[in-house]
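Worked Example 4.2. Read the sequence first, then its structure tokens.
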Amino acid sequence: NAPGWGGGMAIGNNGRFKADVVNSTVRDNHAGHMGGGLRFTANNQGLSSVLNISSSSFYGNTSGDKGGAIACRLNDSIQINVNRSTIVNNTASDSGGAIYTRSYLYSEVNVLNSTISQNSAGVLAGAIYGQGYDCQFNAAGSIIAGNGGNELYNSDTVLITSLGYNVFTDSITT
């Protein structure tokens, strides 16, 4: 697949909404712009939207710009929950080899019992890139290691919380 947005799938809506990706494999897709595997977007009109990824794997996806595996871009707030999932060997030409998120208000990325490894980005954040005013990153029981460049990057205010039993390597840049 090679569309401009969301090579494997694109999910979007106006207003607040929740999307669940469960027991899925998203593999070997390409997006010319954002979200090689998945693009999630909303005009949430002051409300928070949620993307849940559970028991799934994203492998070998590429993006010509941001979010090799997953790209989320919202006008307001976003919560991304990755649980019991694997995100490996994805590439973004610019930022966020595994996950790219941008919100004009607040972003929260929760990684629980998951592996994010061997992803790369041409400019910043082989693992997770957060862009926006406030970005919170929480991890528990996860491996976030071996991604090209710095693992985590946020362009503004970031709060990083380890909830225990994690493996991190490389660097975290804010």
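Now turn to a second chain, presented in exactly the same format:
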Amino acid sequence: IFSIFFHFFFVFFLMVRRPPRSTLFPYTTLFRSQEGLVSDPFTNLNVTLSKLSGNDVAGYGVIFGSHDDTMLVVLINTKKEFIIGELTGNLFTVLQSWDDAPGLKSGYNQTNIIDITYDSGTGEFDLSFNGEWITTFRDDDAPFHTQGKYGYIVVISPMDDFPNIPVSITFKKN
């Protein structure tokens, strides 16, 4: 369907086709893309994202620590909100509910940078948006997500006029 190439800089332009249904959120559809090896230790992920079209509250973001059909997820939307969770199969467990993030830029065609850093000494993840620290969170329940693949995730909302109006997101790994 499309190829993903990782070089020094990675640019990913996504015109989403309807993927299988998911229970991440009621009545949503997901698209996920992953790269890396399950054995890769997670230390940091820094990604630039922008939403060009689609429903303004539907989330898009990054996945990391992915292995055995489980991963951690950070989603943002165009309303300056974010959520952190664990996705196992089609079950989404909230680690931090949707919350305002003053460091995010609102609206379409706005570039936001998500930066996630893992400190193996404390077992904590630090989350920043556009260089502004937002929160620290932990993954205390097995399976742990301190290694694994990373990638991108897009939520298609029932409020999207999809496929008449495509959901378009750009991602660039820094």
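Notes for the reader: The CA atoms of residues 39 and 109 lie 35 Å apart. The radius of gyration is 15 Å.
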